[in-house]
Design a protein that fits this description.
This protein has two helices and five strands. The protein is an alpha+beta fold. It has a single domain, classed as 2-Layer Sandwich (Beta-Lactamase), CATH 3.30.450.20. It has a three-stranded antiparallel sheet. A two-stranded antiparallel ribbon has the order 4-5.
Amino acid sequence: MPHDQCPMAIVLKQRRPIRGHQAIAERPDGTRVPFMPFPTPLYDASGALVGAVNLLIDVSEQQHAATEVPCKLTPEPHSPGRKSLL
């Protein structure tokens, strides 16, 4: 991803936090790690933009769990309205 299109660059241009995006980082050994960035602008007391901070959360365990144990709520045929985990 070009630097001018990364979430932090967008935060600095638009002066607003970015939420709800996921990305994949590639380590030097070639392994990839999915993460969620939380870039947030920082302002001084007068409201001027003075910088930004970015929190990166590794979501690989959540993604692994979601693909390993699919879970869905479905009504059982013999019991209308009852939900079960499949």
